[in-house]
Amino acid sequence: VVNTSVTNQTGQEWQTGFAAGTTLVNILNPSQTVTVNLSNKVPAGTPIVGNGFAVFVPSYEVVNMEPEVVSVSVAQGDSLVTPRDAITITFSEPMNEASVANALSFDPPVTGTLTWSNGSTAVTFTPSGNWPSLSNMVLRIGESATDTAGAILRGGFEREFKTVYSSGGGGGGTPDPAIDGTIIGDPRWGAPISIQTVQTGFGDNTDPTPDGNSGGSELDQLFITSTTTTLYLGIAGNLEPNGNAIILLFDTNGAAGGANILDGTGATSTWLGSQPNSAAGTQMPTGFTPDIILEVQAHSPNQTVSLYAYTFDATGKLHSEDAVGQIEARPGYPTVGTVTGTINGHTYSFDIGLDNSHTGPVAAGSSSANPTGAGAATGLEISIPTSLLGTGPYGILVGLTGASGFWSNQFLPPMTPGTNRGWKPNLATRGITPITYYLPVSLSRVEFY
Known about the structure:
This protein is mostly beta strands and about 450 residues long. The chain is about 5% helix and about 35% strand. The protein starts with 8 loop residues before the first strand and ends in a 12-residue tail after the last strand.
């Protein structure tokens, strides 16, 4: 039986020369059987996978065949999607579960649990924690694995694959949470620093898929945590992948420098350089002078994420403008990965996860939000090296714009209720008070006198 279509199909009935009641076995997948009917035919409805084929013979002609690995959920040389992906292995026939458990291993070593299904023909390995970070992995099943009849997995089996970035380094026993856009339930985050109180002028998303969006962007909740080397931001909400961007503004040195009115002189980017319709000329809240701005933009194809950076000197003039890098989308999944690139001539790495599956609670509009952004569970997570930002304290403000720097009415901390701010607005009149954040201090010794 041959299926020339790329999609799964069911076969029509076909005539055989076998007696009614004869069981036929697909020798390419012995778990698939059909029974000859009273008309000496195989009834219609036999499933055949896309571009697949089957060879059916009478079961009494089949000698016990040695088992084979039919499929593995991660392709040869491919990468896992998240740091905690499970891997499913499918065999050609029911397996002795204990023998497979003893024969299965990973290099580097990873611990986890095995869950069997489909009559002991499929087993799923779930790691105890994160996979080893950014590693070339080998899945091995030794020849000692046997089917339920005792036939060995001759020659064994190997599958090479890769892992994505894991903030804790992984190893199967590391409980460190991944940066994957999942915020609520991630033990990294405590209570939100700020909650949205204004309806969104950029539309309300109703698509619950992690890389889908029905036409909405909003900033619902802001979370911040840090170590002495890394600042972590979590922004629950949505970012429509049409060029919209979440803007992270940092005032790392207070009154010592930075731009209270954003300078676009010499800028070539769409966000800052497409004057007069750009973010250039935007007046910041009183006393807030950001010297580092990160633009996290979502765009096609699918939900690709790009990171841009802008720095400003002590006089408020644009000092550097860099396209740091991007993370390619994986259809059906959050956009997750590491961006490594240069900012003002120095190399930095950022871990980013964008999950757009959140819907609600903030509605579209320009009035006070009811409900507020409290409870939003997914959105943007990003790690930022403190070697870029300095020792702090930091003034922090998060905004939402279009690709050309057109400001929405979404800020964290929020502005007073109102419509989208547009190009080069005066934010000093909107009641926005940026957050002041202090890094933890590491003490090596304390002496008492």
